[in-house]
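Reopening this ticket.

The earlier resolution said the output was attached, but the attachment link was broken on my side. Pasting everything inline this time so it's all in one place.
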Amino acid sequence: MLEATAPSDELRPPRSWPAQNLPGVDFDPVLADLMSEGPVTRIKLPNGSGWAWLFTRYEDVRQVTNDPRFSRKAVVEANVTRLAPHFIPVDGAVGFEDPPDHTRLRRAVAPAFTTRGVESLRARAKVMLDELVDGVLADGPPADLTERLLAPFPLAVVCELMGVPAEDRGRVHGWTALILSSTAGAEKSEQAKQEMCGYFAELMTAYRSGAAHPQGDGMGGEGVIALLAKAIAAEEITQSEAVGLALLLQIGGEAVTNSTGNMMYILLTRPEHWARLKAEPALRPAAIDELLRYIPHRNSVGLSRIAMEDVTVAGQHIKAGEAVYVSYLAANRDPEVFPDPHELHLDRSPNPHVAFGYGPHFCPGNMLARLEQELLVSVLLDRFPGLRLAVPEDELQWRPGALIRGPEALPVTW
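Inline output:
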């Protein structure tokens, strides 16, 4: 088992980074301190063991995430310090693979995530969203945007893309919520993961045996689960790998709920931005990108990597076997790349943010997420005149113990 080595005498002690339930879109004060201490520091998170290096500068983050000498696969066998208590990766999960296996797995679902493939979803997705909005408007104010739109819409879209039958979507959503929780407990999170994996495995087996007819993506193409079932039959990937990939894509698709909730919170509490986007529809795609850059999407950091050989980054010697983290949140606030980084500029250009990651593990669903967010923001701007919060801002609550930050509810009136 790979373990982080003991610190050298000349280094500062690792900084303890506890899990915090931060309000709104406040930037993590611990991360801000770590950024001020230098481009590379050391951290100790609530779970796992030892310490890990943390890189916060934009160019260093991109270097580490695109360098094959830093391995995700090696993390599976290392008890790395981490935020989540329930770190038990699925065997063969794409998030814990390195090229060339990582490339092979992503190739199996690539047809669903091309620009053409994602754009083909637009018309159907807009129909589903308009139907949801019609229901909200018919019921009248007040309404909880999270409950009525921000949760059901991304769930419906990703389930259609995956090919999850409509009658199973409630269960899949419930499993996702438990997997993404850092307070439900390791046992419940692991049970939810196993149940979702079992569900996907049964569906793929039924497709291959002919016991069930493969679901399309609802937009005229093959659903992701059908694509994976075909790849298994062609012996391009194993069933274990396919299940792990399906799990990652399903969870990632539902993360749009939280990020869009943060976007709407910002726009509803900063009326000057709301007014500008209402008056300038052409600005909305650029504004989505700036919101993605600005929003602190997650608590702490995500998945680590292990140095497979000695490497020097930002002048720091990293020994083989040591764990490293990168902070995309910090990289998106790097003043060398983003002038005035702590301010929101809806027309920022260029805007090379790394909200969807970088390198081989760049999020395959990034175009789908942007599509959903653009549709959601636009429909709220265009169909809800006078939309505003129905409660004082300080009464809003953010999801406690969530790995992905977002409001529990967004009560609004119009």
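Reporter confirms the inline version is readable. The longest strand covers residues 40-44. Residues 1-9 have pLDDT under 50 and may be disordered.
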